[in-house]
Amino acid sequence: MNPKIVDVRAVTVVGYEMSGTQEEIAALRPEWKERFLEAAGQIPEQTDGHLMDICLKRAGQLYTHCIAMEVNHIDIIPAGMSSLTIPAGSYALLEFHGEAEEVKYGFRSILTWAREHNVRLDANEFRIHVTVSDGHHHLYWRLADKRSEAIEEAV
């Protein structure tokens, strides 16, 4: 299945953040995911309970990720967790069917599709992996903000 462009509303999430290289994050992800799932019951106001792995930003070789769940609003944030708002905007969405370990191939297919269709993706690699169920994932990659790119070019 090919990606499609969708408009996403702002979403508030609560979860654990981690930073490191792609390799470090990949190595830590299973432990962080298990830790998060053990503590997820403490998060009030959860919406659908879907696990989200969010790549917040990239700075050189360092990435910041958040393993989180969507909430209706911020009430109480469990110890060690933080809240953030996923910005509204346009995203490339791919419905991916496969194992969690194969999700990276789904993101690569979004990148290939974007290049073939002249779609500009967010340079900071703002991506969201939502686990809908075992073997069913929604992969989002934020599109580049044309207005901020124009400002950067003008400066």
Protein described:
This protein has helices spanning 22-39, 103-116, 146-154, and strands spanning 4-8, 11-20, 51-59, 62-71, 82-86, 89-97, 127-133, 136-142. The model is unreliable at 148-155 (pLDDT under 50). It has one domain: Multidrug-efflux Transporter 1 Regulator Bmrr, Chain A. The protein is globular and about 45 Å long. It is built from 3 helices and 8 strands. By secondary structure, it is an alpha+beta fold. Strand 7 and strand 8 (136-142) form a beta hairpin. An 8-stranded antiparallel sheet has the order 1-6-8-7-3-4-2-5. This is AraC effector-binding domain-containing protein. InterPro entries: AraC_E-bd (IPR010499), GyrI-like (IPR029442), Reg_factor_effector_dom_sf (IPR011256). Residues 1-144 form the AraC effector-binding domain.
Question: Which labels suit this protein?
Answer:
155 residues; alpha+beta; Multidrug-efflux Transporter 1 Regulator Bmrr, Chain A; 8-stranded antiparallel beta sheet; 40% strand; AraC_E-bd; Reg_factor_effector_dom_sf; AraC effector-binding domain-containing protein
TL;DR of this structure?
With 155 residues, the protein is α+β, with helices and mostly antiparallel strands.
CATH superfamily: Regulatory factor, effector binding domain
In terms of per-residue confidence, which ranges show pLDDT below 50 for 5 or more consecutive residues? 148-155
**Series of H and E elements:** EEHEEEEHEEH
How much helix is in the residues?
25-40%
Counting DSSP H or I runs of 4 or more residues, the number of helices is: 3
Radius of gyration computed on alpha carbons? 16 Å
Please give the domain count. 1
Cα distance, first to last residue?
39 Å
Largest sheet: 8 strands, antiparallel
User: CATH topology, anyone?
Assistant: Multidrug-efflux Transporter 1 Regulator Bmrr, Chain A
How are the strands of the biggest sheet laid out side by side?
A: 1-6-8-7-3-4-2-5
CATH architectural grouping: Alpha-Beta Barrel
Shape descriptor: globular
